[in-house]
Specification:
Elements: H1 3-44, E1 47-50, H2 51-69, E2 75-82, H3 89-101, E3 109-118, H4 120-123, H5 137-159, E4 163-170, E5 176-183, E6 201-207, E7 209-211, E8 225-227, E9 232-237, H6 241-260, E10 262-266, E11 272-274
Parallel strand pairs: 2-3, 3-4
Antiparallel strand pairs: 1-9, 2-5, 4-10, 5-6, 6-9, 7-8, 10-11
């Protein structure tokens, strides 16, 4: 065996070991980096507070986006809400939306509001077995429903075609609720930015929870307390796979409650229009 052959046979396994070690180190680094990226994304899309705190964050997010976006031209925002009784959301609808539209710098802004909330007659059914302790859901839903006609009329008088709103009721208890904010992409909305990262699609999502009280043995089970806006909200965006998945699911449920399975349409003339499916 000559020297060159001997040297090659000696180096081959060493080089193979070095290559394997380097590859394993790179692969470990890649996994750690990807894991850290996922963590960062989840943190950015994490908890944003409860009830009024979450809605304050919603307002700040919309305002901050519009301040930059209006520099590129007219903008139309679609706001989609899935609610139970609009316990906390009604304040945002009644106060924050007019506040945004009334600002001079947002004179080119149009907002379309689509709300799906639970029918108060459905919430009042004893079969649901919901405790009224601390919150009468049926009463709250009915009260907010009575405010809609006056609100719609007032907003039309102040802002004309810069604001549209529709309120539909449905009969179910949603596992998820919250607000979806996205920029409408249509010819009437003006020219949208060409950079896809400059448009907004944010979901402020809440979860419905139950507080169970366990009675003493031998007594009837006590109806649980339902919590909605009191629970932590989470922010999701269309910049991550996890966010896109949540947004798509929310849009599917909103479409079902709002367009397919709605019970009533609450109109400006202060009458509850019975749902007969919209016909051409």
């Amino acid at each position: 065996m000559d020297f060159n052959t001997f040297f090659s046979d000696l180096l081959a396994p060493i080089i193979l070991i070095l290559f394997s070690t380097l590859f394993n180190a790179w692969f470990t680094y890649y996994r750690v980096k990807k894991s850290n990226k996922d963590i960062i994304e989840k943190i950015e899309e994490g908890d944003i507070g409860k009830d009024t705190a979450a809605l304050d964050e919603l307002y700040k997010t919309i305002k901050k986006y519009l301040e930059k976006r209006v520099k590129s031209g007219p903008v139309t925002l679609d706001l989609k809400l899935i609610a139970v009784a609009m316990t906390y959301s009604w304040e945002f609808i009644e106060e924050k939306i007019p506040l945004l539209l009334n600002q001079d710098e947002f004179s080119s802004v149009t907002i379309n509001l689509q709300v799906a909330f639970v029918d108060h007659k459905y919430l009042s059914q004893k079969i649901l077995k919901i405790s009224n302790e601390g919150k009468d859901w049926a009463k709250t839903s009915k009260l907010n429903e009575t405010k809609i006609p006056k609100y719609a009329k007032s907003m039309a008088e102040f802002f004309g075609n810069r604001f549209t709103c529709e309120f539909h009721t449905y009969r179910n208890l949603p596992h998820w609720h919250g607000w979806l904010v996205c920029e409408a992409q249509n010819e009437l909305a003006g020219v949208a930015p060409t950079n896809e990262n400059s448009t907004i699609t944010h979901l402020f999502m809440g979860r419905t929870r139950w507080e169970h009280t366990y009675p003493k043995s031998g007594t009837r089970r006590i109806p649980p307390k339902m919590t909605v806006g009191q629970n932590e909200y989470r922010l999701f965006t269309d910049k991550t796979k996890h966010g896109i998945s949540r947004i798509e699911l929310f849009e599917q449920w909103h479409m079902y409650y709002y367009e397919i399975a709605f019970a009533n349409i609450i109109s400006e003339d202060n009458k509850r229009k019975r749902a007969k499916r919209l016909k051409e």
